[in-house]
Design brief:
Blueprint: H1 19-35
């Protein structure tokens, strides 16, 4: 049987790189949160 994913936990990024890379990392984190019904 499949177990549901836990609703607890934290997603983080390591903001490495220049400003454009950091914005891309943040945008990805925001999109993942929205797709999974999480607070960003």
């Amino acid at each position: 049987p499949k177990h549901p994913a836990s609703l607890s936990g934290t997603w983080t990024i390591y903001p490495d790189g220049r400003f454009g890379n950091q914005m891309g990392q943040y945008a990805t984190l925001l999109a993942l949160a929205q797709l999974n019904g999480r607070q960003a």
